[in-house]
C-alpha cells in the first residue's frame, strides 16, 4: 500500500507525515488522527532527509497490512465463537458473558501482539520511498 503525504514536523532523525484520512483509517490504528480528524499522522524515520512541506511517498507492504488486519479481526472473532460455544454448555447468561470476555480478551491479545511483535518486524513499519516532485497532496496539511 502506497500513500502520499506531507512532512508536517521534524523530530531529530524522524518526521511526522500527514495523510488525508481514508475510510480504512478507522480500523488500522497505525497512525494518529490529527486534531481536525480529516488527516492522519505517522511518525517515520526520515530516511530521505525530507524537509517540512515535502510531499513524500510512504509504503507499507500489502502482505503486512493483510496480516495485521487478520490479527485485529480474526483473533477476537475466534475467541467470541469459543466463548459462545463453551458458554452454551452452561447457561445463556454464561454464554453471553464468555462471548463478551472472548471479545475483550481477543483485542487484548491483538494489542499485545501489535506492540511487542508486529511493530518490531521489518515491513510492518511504514517507510519513506521517495520525495515527490509533484504536489498532488495539499501543502496545508
Task: Give the overall silhouette.
Answer: elongated
Low-confidence stretches: 136-141
Strands in their spatial order, largest beta sheet = 3-4-2-1-5-6
Helix content: 25-40%
Tell me the number of helical segments per DSSP (H or I, 4 or more residues long): 3
Describe the structure.
This protein is α+β, with helices and mostly antiparallel strands. The chain has 3 helices and 6 strands. The protein has a 6-stranded antiparallel beta sheet with strand order 3-4-2-1-5-6, with no helix packed on it. α2 (62-87) packs antiparallel against α3 (92-116). It is elongated, with a radius of gyration of 19 Å. The chain starts with a strand and ends in a 10-residue tail after the last strand. Mean pLDDT is 80; it is low at 136-141.
Summed up:
By secondary structure, the protein is an alpha+beta fold.
List strands and helices in order, with pairings.
Blueprint: E1 2-11, E2 14-20, H1 25-28, E3 32-33, E4 39-45, E5 55-59, H2 62-87, H3 92-116, E6 127-131
Antiparallel strand pairs: 1-2, 1-5, 2-4, 3-4, 5-6
Helix pairs in contact: 2-3
